[in-house]
Amino acid sequence: MKKKLLGVLLTAVVTTSLLAGCGSSEEPAAPAAQEEPENVEEAEEETEAAGEVAEPEEATEEAATSEGIDTSENYLEGKKIVVLLKSYTHMFWVEAANEAEMLADQYGCEVEILAPTVANSNEEQIELLENSLVSPPDLYIIVPADSQGIAPAIAEINNEGIPIVNVNTQITDESVSYDSYVSANQYDLGYTTVSTAIEKLGEEGKAIVIFGKPGAQTYMERDEGASAAFAEHAGWEVLDNQVANGDRNEAMTVMQTLMTKYSDIDLVYAEDGEMALGAAEAIKAAGKEGEIKVVGDNSSVEICDAIKSGALYMVYDDAAWSQMETGFKVANLVLGGQSVEDTYYSPIYLVDSDNVEEYSKRYDE
Amino acid sequence: MKAEKLNLKLLFIKGSRVVVLLVLFIVFSVFTENFFRFDNWSNIGNILLQEAPFYMMLALAMVIPMIVGGLDLSVGSNISLSSFVCAMVIRETENPLLAIIAGLMVGCLIGTLNGYMIAKIGVPPFVATYSMDWIAKGAVLVISKGGQITGFNSFRAIFNSWRGTYLLISLVFMVLAWILYTKTVFGKRTYCVGCNAEAARISGMKSAQIRILAYLASGFVAAMTGMMYISKLGAAEPTLGGAFTMEAIAAALIGGASFVGAKSKISNALVGGLIIVVLNNGLIHIGVPGVWQDCAQGVIIIAAILLERLLEKMQTERS
Lengths: 365, 319
Known about the structure:
The structure holds 2 protein chains of 2 kinds. By secondary structure, chain A is α/β, with parallel strands linked by helices. Helices cover 43% and strands 16% of the residues of chain A. The longest helix of chain A is centred in the N-terminal third of the chain and has 19 residues, at 2-20. In chain A, 57% of the residues are buried. Chain B starts with a helix and ends with a helix. Chain B has a single domain (43-287), classed as ABC transporter involved in vitamin B12 uptake, BtuC (Orthogonal Bundle). Chain B is mainly alpha-helical. At the A-B interface, helix 1, helix 3, strand 7, helix 8 and helix 9 of A face helix 3, helix 6, helix 11, helix 12 and helix 13 of B.
């Protein structure tokens, strides 16, 4: 009997752990808590303006932005930079890698791009950084998969005295240091996306939120921003907030179920582009395209195509290329011995039917 | 009369997973507004036509190697690679049939290599299929360069022109697998090999060949599942399949399959797939917040398994 009970429990535990482990995300994740937007009205005005022009415009600005960085001198020329990314399998990071190579050409520096073969593998990232110290670069641009877990490798780099620009996901272990942190403001991203959608759709409606991944700081901040935006509009009701782990397939399945639960949905806010595409596909399959508007964050060729076709209503892009561009600008200052801010926020960009043709041209380059 | 009673009890024990499925179905139907209503079958249609076929296929791809006492940890990456190859062929040739054949061949090749390593070289199934998982993951990364392939409308039309296509495909696969493994000499030999491969070999059965064929079949089912997925999503991407192996194992175990050879049945895949889907769907309908769902799923699965074992025990004691 005991053996049998043990067997039952073991099966249950294995099954539970398997299910708990289901779902993965390669979405850029986890900057630590950032400041809320300082001037929401100003951000909204700029957002509106961005939708009216063909050229992509910045939607928000913070105290330390990439625009304020002095790039008159090139201190990167002839230097070697190691860029560590989270993966090679997500379009966001492929775009970041491409941008880094292009920027290296522009600045005349050598760049080595590293990324784990298993997306978001902290262990592999540590190994890659340790190996890179055999022939140390002049500066590191680091996107850690784990805010705390990367600390052992950062400590080794600190010991070597090599400067670090931390991009996208903030290193939060206080025992190690970096020179500056660069990212889009994720709270602002969620807030602005939802605010803009509400401005366009009117003061009343019913919405669904598709959450990225529980525990991932990026998604949590976007979610907080979106919740704040919904809370400001009493006419809007959030019907449900369901997890899809940053996965297109999961988002599609969740949306299919939610459409059977709620007959009246006006807006879906998906916390990243992949999930937005999944939700849009479910809506299309149900024949409700156009009836339910899907908005999200991030951009890619496919997302632009979906906006062109009307499957997606609009997105805000926290732009991998923009974060990398800002990272290189800050790296230039660091190697030039200039003073740098603790944090720089890279711009976010509205992509909708008005400017998608223009915006998507960057993917042709 | 007594014999009839015993048969009923036996049927009840045998069908205890179905009882779990029914209990879940009834609970969600009673406590939610739209999970199931006699005047509104949209969610049941959604479950049966859009969700269950995929989980049933995933579970089937796992149950077949489990019959011969193994497992296949490369199911997810097989889905990823075979579906991406399929999408590449469509992009290059615009020939959906050729693309399907190419995708299925990739799946079969992965399955055969798994089977060969396990049955001929003697590599433990965990190591062989785990290694293959890495190889397939790496391969899809190399050929995709991290990018996606989208569009392929002519291919999607094959699967999406009728809403019941996914269910039909999965049921056809289930029925064929059930016939193959329960109604044929080959199937009986497969169970013999699963029970004791060495004894089966000594009694003249081609033990190694039978195990290789089990992994080949698993690869074939996985590849087909991959094609169903990219057709459903409208995109082939290297990240597809990341969680599928674990989902396949979970569905198979919940359905009653066992890692002990010859203890698993094809019907375990059917029931396990359905239980997972009903659970996922029902939790959303009942209003469990997204962040609590993993936890709620775990608790319900443990409760379901304990309930099932309790029923079994009660029936055994009475008989």
